[in-house]
Design goal:
Blueprint (H helix, E strand, L loop, with lengths): L1 H20 L3 H7 L28 E12 L2 E14 L3 E14 L4 E5 L3 E11 L2 E5 L2 E3 L20 E12 L3 E12 L6 E12 L3 E12 L4 E13 L2 H4 L4 E2 L1 E9 L9 E12 L4
Antiparallel strand pairs: 1-2, 1-15, 2-3, 3-4, 3-5, 5-6, 5-7, 6-8, 7-8, 8-9, 9-10, 10-11, 11-12, 12-14, 13-15, 14-15
Length: about 280
């Protein structure tokens, strides 16, 4: 019995050795888990346009964003809380509320909470590096009301809903091209918007990326209101610390400038920076 067991073990060992010797190396490589592509998406924040990505199943992303705008003598600033939660791998819920300040150079500044915005993103196509999503948003009319020079309240933007289509395509694992087409319907009949955007992203290593976009806001007749070019940079803080954890902390900034004629008749400059706290998806 003992001798038979030894013979059986030797036979199994020889069969295994023979199989491994003739195995196709390419086949073995195919069976190895594919390394995740570096992040190159053109996304908000820090850009104006967004991408089809979501936080993933039970993932959480909280963004703290500061921005400054200058249009002629006008000055504006915004501190934004943007919280996102993933339901499954393809759906994202969003809550967004800013604190805004506006005024003129050397003049009085008015500030208060801006309008609340809620959104649901659904990525319905994800294949061969191509991703497409819809991202309906609803904006409430609950922001503070600034006053004019005589102390009279100015007209608010009112309630609106926004429906963008977001598209992104990854190339060679480190490049991405993106496009957005969105329509904002003002429910108070105070003017509708059409937003068009094109963007490019480039991953640098595994922890940073360079971004660029052209973002155009137009009226319902597609007449240009303002078109901006913007460059951005995103970097993960302390990636070695968080490599084996469920957290990521990206730091980001972007700089934008208007091109061509604007609705205000004056050039516009914008700067945004911020920090995100990301809880990776749970499977």
């Amino acid at each position: 019995m003992f001798t038979q067991a030894i013979r059986a073990a030797v036979a199994v060992g020889l069969m295994t050795l023979f199989t491994n010797a003739w195995a196709d190396p390419a086949e073995a490589e195919d069976e190895a888990p594919e390394e995740e592509a570096a992040e190159s998406a053109v996304s908000s924040p820090p850009m104006e346009m967004d991408d089809p990505g979501t936080p993933g199943s039970r993932g959480l992303e909280v963004n703290f964003v500061g921005s400054f705008d200058r249009v002629g003598d006008g000055r504006g600033a915004e501190s934004l809380l943007d919280a996102n939660y993933g339901i499954g791998d393809r759906i994202q819920l969003k809550y967004e509320r800013p604190y805004v300040s506006e005024g003129t150079a050397g003049g009085e500044t008015q500030s208060g909470l801006g309008a609340t915005e809620l959104g649901v993103k659904w990525r319905f196509i994800e294949r061969d590096g191509l991703e497409i999503a819809v991202y309906p948003n609803y904006s409430f009319d609950d922001g503070f009301t600034p006053t004019d020079e005589e102390g009279n309240p100015e007209l608010s933007s009112g309630r609106s809903y926004y429906l963008p289509v977001l598209l992104s395509k990854t190339f060679h694992r480190v490049y991405s091209a993106a496009a957005n087409v969105g329509y904002r319907r003002n429910l108070e009949n105070r003017g509708d918007d059409v937003n068009l955007a094109l963007g490019l992203g480039r991953a640098i290593g595994g922890s940073s990326r360079l971004l660029a976009e052209v973002f155009s806001e137009r009226d319902e007749h597609l007449t240009n209101r303002q078109t901006d070019v913007r460059a951005g940079y995103v970097i993960l803080l302390f990636p070695q610390w968080f490599e084996k954890s469920s957290f990521e902390v990206p730091l980001y900034a972007s700089l934008g400038h208007s091109i061509g004629q604007t609705e205000e008749g004056e050039s516009a400059l914008s700067f945004a920076f911020g920090l995100s706290f990301i809880l990776k998806p749970r499977h």
